[in-house]
Amino acid sequence: MFQTFGRFPDRWWNAWGRRTNFFNDGGKPKQEWSDGIPKAVVYPMQEVIADIGSEDDEEPRKAEALLELSGASVPLEEAVHLNDLLNRIFKWVPEERISLNDILNHSWFGTKYET
């Protein structure tokens, strides 16, 4: 989540004493971490969605072929809605997360529900 959504809220960030081993004060990953730990990369949700299907094998296993076609990607308009939904769901502070009702009525689903 850190790589996708950025640094923690200030109260958690300031309480994390070892953060300087891995991140600068702005929350960006350091170029090299201590103790041989691989460095983190910034990987925003928009890029995660855009990469769906980009690493598929040319010949998917039988079970994978049932789920989606090899190389399938998310159309741009759908990607915009999915990105918005996931960014509203995955919030560090639970009180800032989208409600279940708002999730069910989000434009990504394309249908309105009454709860």
TrEMBL record:
It comes from the Eukaryota. SUPFAM superfamilies: Protein kinase-like (PK-like) (SSF56112). InterPro entries: Kinase-like_dom_sf. This is Protein kinase domain-containing protein. It comes from Cudoniella acicularis.
